[in-house]
# Entry
Amino acid sequence: MTPERQLRYWAIGLVVFVVLLYLLRDILMPFVAGMAIAYFFDPVCDRLERGGLSRTWSTVVVTVAFVILLLLFVGLLVPMLIEQATSLAARLPQLVDLVREGLQALLTRLEARADAELFERIRAAVASQLGKLTDIVGTLLGGLLTGGLAVANFLSLLFLTPVVAFFLLRDWDRMVERLDGWLPRRQRPTIRRLAQETDEILSGYVRGVAIVCLILGTFYAIGLSLVGLSSGLIVGLIAGLLSFIPYLGAVIGLLLSVGLALLQFDEIWRVLLVAAIFFAGQAAEGNFLTPKLVGERIGLHPVLVIFALLAGGALFGFTGVLLAIPVSAVIGVLTRFALTQYLASPLYTAGESPSESRSERPPPE
# Structure
């Protein structure tokens, strides 16, 4: 089989896979979530296997521990979170009014000092950009609701995900070995190398970011609760959960908590203390947590992460959000491979002497 024909078969297979993924997006979330859990805990099972347990018993131990932690979380924290979420929802109109009053005062001051025509242009430009941002966020949230929990029943997610995760985790090594045996023999070394690069990026990013989110969520929740902020627990957990999107968790958490603090506290030092908690969390994340747990050479730029999450959420709902990082990691690895091939091909080096080609060729990274 010629390389052109082989490439055609791979392209047709990729198109069929993407079409099926789009058509089945409403029922895929428990399976994608189960696959993510299996990928996350596979190293734990491997370590238990090296300790003497069989793969089945390693999977049982990991799954039971995960379910127990999940039940403890649901039993201990969910009632408190529901109570605080209700309180937060009741305070949101007041928070919106506070923000509106602050913006109105700021606009009044600017209008008094600035040229009227210039001010109208600025206000129109800001309104236009805010409208675009609202449309993007609305599309993302709409995709999350229609393509995620609204269609895929929450109970099916709750009960199917552990089952799917158990069977995938038990057969993970076997499935990887089977897929490796199906690879084209001629391209097998290259595909293995690219798959290893992708796995290194994903393991470094996904597991590292999950730990960072857990640490930040715990820090924010405990800190805000100790300050005495109403709904501090749920605001801190939301900020920690959204920290997998660069800067979004800290910004939303800071705005929410400071707004709630202005409504709740009369002392300005308490409001400043609430803000200081988020600045301390961001300082710890940027200087210690992310460099140590995630690493600096993961190959995923923050802008790429934000774009991938928005695009995945808009196209496939919550399932797309779960798939966004793995897909972007694969695309990044394939792009660097294609660039390396291009720099080594006659398409790039045509017309150059060998010495010029070696001295002037830029690095592929």
